[in-house]
Amino acid sequence: MMHPLRKHIEELIDLTDEEFEFVLQHFEPVKKRKHQHIVQEGDFVRKEYWVVKGCLKSCFFDDEGKEHILQFGMENWWITDYESFIKKTKSEINIDCIEDSDLLYITYENRERLTAQMHKMERFWAKKSKYGRIALQKRILSLLKNSAKERYDLLLEEYPQLFQRVPKKLIAAYLGVSRETLSRLSS
């Protein structure tokens, strides 16, 4: 059976068995329980995580203590505080597990080393970055131009599994609506 990370990578680039073994040497597995943090505001983030199994959320709290969800991370998704990871600044966000999660992480140094030694992986991360920017642009445009109902319907259409795995209050925080508004949208 093919390793899930290899399957994920090979959606964008081809790898030989030897190349994949070399790639895998740069990653470490970690298990986290529900509610455990992988990033806390103020941390210096040195790891990028790939979700093997589980569900995570990336969020921040405004001055009134209201939670805002930036991203969910499920199987085959990458998650970290990218500004902190790349620029070596303190994190402004929190990332924690919504479910028990199995993750693979790569440190910034290992990622740089891997891409320097294996240009296929440099191309892989360049493609992932492009797709990430597209997803971010779509999310921002949706927040700016779509009604709450349209945002709800788009999320349900694109990621129906989220609604089975994520509490409604977190879906509401992602959509930028109250829990009560979400109840009206889903009825």
UniProtKB/TrEMBL annotation:
Residues annotated as domain Cyclic nucleotide-binding: 31-115
Entry-linked Gene3D superfamilies: Jelly Rolls
Name of the protein in question: CRP-like cAMP-binding protein
